[in-house]
Amino acid sequence: MTGKTDVIAPRAPIRIAAQVDAHACAKPDYPSSSIRNGEEGIVHLAMLIGADGRVLEGKVEKSSGSRVLDKAAIQGLSLCQFKPGSVDGIPEKSWAKLQYVWTLDQP
Hints:
The chain has one domain: Fusion Protein Consisting Of Minor Coat Protein, Glycine Rich Linker, Tola, And A His Tag, Chain: A, Domain 2. Helix content is 14%, strand content 32%. The chain contains 2 helices and 6 strands, in the order βαββαβββ. Strand 2 (41-49) and strand 3 (55-62) form a beta hairpin. Keywords: Cell inner membrane, Cell membrane, Membrane, Protein transport, Transmembrane, Transmembrane helix, Transport. Pfam families: TonB_C.
């Protein structure tokens, strides 16, 4: 009598990336010194999104060319709430990227 044993291969966990939408952020105030100096630019940010969707940490990956605008963009991340990433349906912290565009309104 020979017995047959079914072997079930372990499945890979299902990972879903955090959903980053700039519209989920309140717009930070444009720094007054940057307005006076006519500074504009794009800040490329990396951020660690917690399991609750709040930004735990942020860093500049590519500067706008203005330290003031870069700092304001990092501070602005505290105004954001995102849908966190997950593994097998359980929220987990994960890194994501976002660009923040600073432009002065033209009259």
